[in-house]
Amino acid sequence: MKNLIVIGCLFLFSTSFHAQQTKIAKPKTEQKIKEKKEKEATEEKLAKSKKEGTEKIDKKKGELQEKGSKVKKETSEKEKKETAKIRESSEKPPKVADKVTGEYRGNKVYTGPKGGKYYINKKGNKTYLYDDE
Q1: Are 109 and 101 in contact (CB under 8 A)?
Q2: Could you tell me the pTM of the whole model?
Q3: What pLDDT was estimated at residue 108?
């Protein structure tokens, strides 16, 4: 009989030690609703931040375009002045053809604007004459 009492006590104590608490499970539909709300909230935040970002970018683009137009106006004025200078400098007197001043070995001798004398050889190149010749 003692054995039965000991075995009974062991049975009672062993079941109480191994018992686990169970969590109260929420229905799956409530969890899904909560997850959807969280997902929608994050999507709204992302959309809002993207919208703000694009507004900032558009504002910066507008500012840069305004600055660009000002710079273009300034450069166009500078370009006009530079082209006027180039036109003035390019209005040099027209070149005068070299004068024929003699003959050397059957070729016509030309005298250039600075006084150099040359003739045109068989290949069509200028060959300059020096005082020794």
Answers
A1: yes
A2: 0.30
A3: 92
